[in-house]
Design brief:
The structure is a homodimer of 447-residue chains. The first copy, chain A, has helices at residues 9-21, 48-57, 62-70, 76-83, 113-118, 120-143, 159-172, 181-187, 197-203, 206-216, 229-243, 259-272, 288-296, 308-311, 393-406, 409-412, 427-445, and strands at 26-33, 43-44, 90-93, 99-100, 107-112, 149-151, 177-178, 221-223, 251-254, 279-282, 303-306, 321-328, 331-332, 347-354, 357-365, 373-374, 377-381, 384-385, 423-425. With 447 residues, chain A is of the alpha/beta class. The first copy, chain A, has 2 domains: 9-134 and 319-445, nicotinate phosphoribosyltransferase; 137-311, TIM Barrel, CATH 3.20.20. Chains A, B: Catalyzes the first step in the biosynthesis of NAD from nicotinic acid, the ATP-dependent synthesis of beta-nicotinate D-ribonucleotide from nicotinate and 5-phospho-D-ribose 1-phosphate.
Chain lengths: 447, 447
């Protein structure tokens, strides 16, 4: 579990001030993405499980409290409040694995103001990373057109926690396996991996390396590009002749060079040797665009290993995600800063479908009933997770597959869809915004 | 400490094969960046501390071993070896906070092949992230021209571990403080932060919010852009009149809008009210380019809060970092794959300076003595850290400041320097490469 100190200092100074002032009425905060990046037609919500686990278990240890006290910034009132902190609020959220669009809440926290404020940083940190990662991985999976995608990215993901969470998010999005053992252990993900170039290099002689490896792991994938890719494939053919019926190698892996032409040539060499059932696995700097390009050129590739680009969401390494106060003490709240006028109040999202295809979303006030399927539902009540709010990872993955299947084809594709998928605002919510803006302007210009 | 399972499956399958074959001679692996990204004139080495701590403490728990056994992939020999694993190798490295260039080893591991192979994934994971982060932060600090930069990025950094490590790397690179309390506690970093928009919104009335906050935290920074930035500044002026000598506010923070014109206007309003000592703090989607632009337009900004762009190194979210076998059993090793011919053998880097300014680096064979200052030194011997290989974080930060001061001005600047800083290869190393390539080609074409 994360330390309670994984937060921004200002969350604590604000809570200190709220407590001093007695501001502990109910507040609602909404976690959402302000704008979709140009290269994302949708986002795949992910990270709710960690968000809820955090809210259920967040405590301040005596060591953490002592350190906070040592800063000499906080009131005894705050330190005492933190010592007894338990999250007592409600949470409404869209299930993990649900496609969402700009301005749609991924989750809403309803709790006494100091509690709802305190948890901001960690909730964003986790939901942001995991939604970012699932959204990227969904594109790679889409590009692979049903071929397995294996996550190879842990070495260049941003630290240990990202290594874990991104592997999980990729699984939600449909990635087939991960090279990351810790993620395999923690989440029960299928793990995959065989050899690196260093293995071949340590032997010098490539055929000797293949021979030794296959003795230990007969049903393996051999990496063939250490010296010369097609020479490497010929060594595999040679090994097959040597071993006869004992040859059980499942695939060769190409990790560099012109993968279209190498895959064609490798396939030809293998087929000519009667090794039709040896598959071709491609890796090496791949992303969704490159996977799509390879398949558009009919490269006979059976599976893809994708690393860094998916692991750090290289083209879009961050989302414009915010956690905003939308209601306090029963009044809608918003911000008027340049270019950032928001929708006040708690919300619901209705997704309207025709023949199983999503046609538009409508952002509505919480409690409004409109046509379509409501996406947010309550997952936590008074600090406790609802009984049906603990889907298994496989259920989440199945949910993602089904929900992605409801998206219009052009929204799932890699290229930006124009016009974007329509997200409209209900008349009720628009009216509420006008009212809140009017009240606010009156307050601001009052003498 | 990281779990021993934070690794790629193939490290373990390769080690299993090495053990089966009896390949446990000494190997040398080199960790380096193949190419500098277009927008990086140099990288700032970071992450060695975590790499060494990992090598000193890496153990496999019985729970981890039981899980590995449950995969039914590994030999009893491997599981037994893992159970008794202790890293017994040597490490040579450039100190944290040293600028490095493409192909220059950040660290070299010299150990029995299975040991050196096993640790690959975690070493890259940590050195990659921290070098990436320090390199980005150094650019932001450079752009700020001596003004303090505060790290605000934890909420959109990739997970908890990145939150910690990036804050540390930013400190190494010269960032002044962080909003991240956990990083503050763990590393003793100065922490900073006061209020978010939600604080002002919860009050509705902005002046009431400022008044309440200042009562609790008199020497604070007030966020003035929730509704209208210059109106917010006028409220601060009003509060100063109310409080008279009790007014101790240190700064106003501008977080949106046209920061050049808002900073000028805010400065004018404050000065006109006799509040010359109230500083202007700017934040909101800043990166090094925007900081440079603001200062080029003479925006009267005293300090910067920089978040996401620095926290995820948004323009360059990953480096082409590799950990390559360069020597086995006394023989230089390399890879010939397309576009990836490497330099074999262990190395040293000599940095030649004139009048305190670095003029060129020379990549040499380990043991060569050439003009200039050698950058790599031994930091671990037989699994134990050398006595002088535990600098404090403040020493590392001071080292970075000094080393950055030795770089040519054009290399420190934000724009790509053409031609790039020269990194040459010593005749000794070139000769070794030719010899290894010749040997390898002979082996490859032997009958």
């Amino acid at each position: 579990m994360a330390s309670a100190l994984l937060t921004d200092l200002y969350e604590l100074t604000m809570v200190d001030a709220y407590l001093t002032e007695g501001l502990h009425d109910e507040a609602a905060f909404s976690l959402f993405v302000r704008r979709l990046p140009a290269r994302r037609n949708f986002l795949l919500a992910c990270g709710l499980e960690d968000a809820l686990a955090y809210l259920e278990t967040l405590r301040f240890s005596s060591e953490e409290l002592a350190w906070l006290e040592s800063l000499r910034r906080f009131s005894p009132r705050l330190l005492d409040w933190l010592e007894h902190f338990r999250f007592t609020g409600d949470v409404h959220a869209v299930p993990e694995g649900t496609p969402v669009f700009a301005e749609e809440p991924l989750l809403e926290v309803v709790a006494p103001l100091p509690e709802a404020q305190l948890v901001e940083t960690y909730l964003i940190n986790q939901v942001h990373l995991q939604t970012l990662a699932a959204s990227k991985a969904a594109r790679v999976v889409e590009a692979a057109q049903g071929r397995p995608v294996v996550d190879f990215g842990v070495r260049r993901m941003h630290g240990v926690d990202a290594g874990l969470k991104v592997a999980r998010a990729a699984h939600v999005a449909g990635v087939s396996a991960t090279s990351n053992l810790l993620a395999g252990q923690r989440y029960g993900l299928p793990v995959a991996g065989t050899m690196a170039h260093s293995y071949v290099q340590a032997h010098g002689d490539e055929l000797a390396a293949f021979r030794a490896y296959v003795r230990r792991f007969p049903e393996t994938t051999l990496l063939v590009d250490t010296y010369d890719t097609l020479e490497g494939v010929r060594k595999v053919v040679e090994l097959a002749r040597e071993l006869g019926p004992d040859f059980q190698v499942r695939a060769v892996r190409l990790d560099s060079g012109d993968l279209v032409s190498l895959a064609h040539s490798a396939r030809w060499l293998l087929d000519a040797a009667g090794l039709e059932r040896v598959q071709i696995f491609a890796s090496g700097g791949l992303d969704e665009d490159e996977v799509a390009r390879l398949l558009a050129h009919h490269a006979p590739i059976d599976a893809f290993g994708v690393g860094t680009a998916m692991g750090v969401s290289a083209d879009v390494p961050a989302l414009d995600m915010a956690y905003k106060l939308v209601e306090y003490a029963g009044h809608g709240r918003l911000k008027l800063s340049t270019g950032k006028v928001l929708l006040p109040g708690r919300k619901q999202v209705f997704r309207e479908e025709e023949d199983g295809v999503a046609r538009r979303d409508v952002l509505a006030r919480h409690g409004e009933v409109l046509p379509g399927r409501p996406l947010l539902r309550q997952v936590m009540h008074v600090g406790r997770r609802m009984e049906d709010a603990s889907p298994t990872l496989e259920e989440i993955r199945a949910h993602a597959r089904e929900e992605l299947g409801h998206l219009p084809l052009e929204v799932r594709q890699l290229e930006p869809v124009r016009p974007p998928y329509p997200v409209e605002v209900s008349p009720g919510l628009l009216a509420e915004r006008e009212q809140v803006v009017a009240e606010l302007r009156e307050e601001l210009h009052a003498p």
